[in-house]
Amino acid sequence: HFKSFRSLVNEMLYKVVLQKSEEGYSVSCPALPGCWSQGETEDDALENIKDAIEDYLFVLNEQLKDADVREVEVAA
Fold first, then answer.
1. Is the Cβ–Cβ distance between 45 and 28 less than 8 Å?
2. What is the dihedral angle through the alpha carbons of 33, 13, 28, 42, rounded to the nearest 10 degrees?
3. CA–CA distance, 44 with 40 (Å, rounded to integer)
4. 49-56 contacts: CB < 8 A, separation 24 or more?
5. Is 49 in contact with 36 (CB distance < 8 Å)?
């Protein structure tokens, strides 16, 4: 699956918390409050959280479209 240069530059790693439940697995992204998903299996849940993170970031970018936004680099 080919990715454009722009999508490669914008790729980030997000820590997610995976929890087994009676229905399968729930998963959340602590860095993005309210961003969560679920799946029947661990793999399903991890794929679903990727979609949830992409949707979350799209909405966030739309909300900040006209704002004076800056980026800072932080050493982990």
1. no
2. 170
3. 6
4. 49/16, 53/14, 53/29, 56/29, 56/32
5. yes
Q: Tokens for 24?
A: 């399968």
**38: Cα within 13 Å, side-chain hemisphere:** 8
Per-residue pLDDT of the chain (76 residues; tens, 9 = 90+): 444 444 444 678 999 999 998 889 999 999 999 999 999 999 999 999 999 999 999 999 899 999 998 989 999 7
> What are 26's two structure tokens?
């729930």
Q: Do residues 18 and 12 touch, judged by C-beta distance below 8 A?
A: no
Query: What DSSP element (H or E) covers 59?
Result: helix 42-63
- Can you tell me the distance from the alpha carbon of 13 to that of 67, in angstroms, rounded to the nearest whole number? 25
- What tokens does 27 get? 């998963």
What does residue 3 show for φ and ψ, rounded to 5 degrees? -120, 140
**Which pTM was predicted?**
0.79
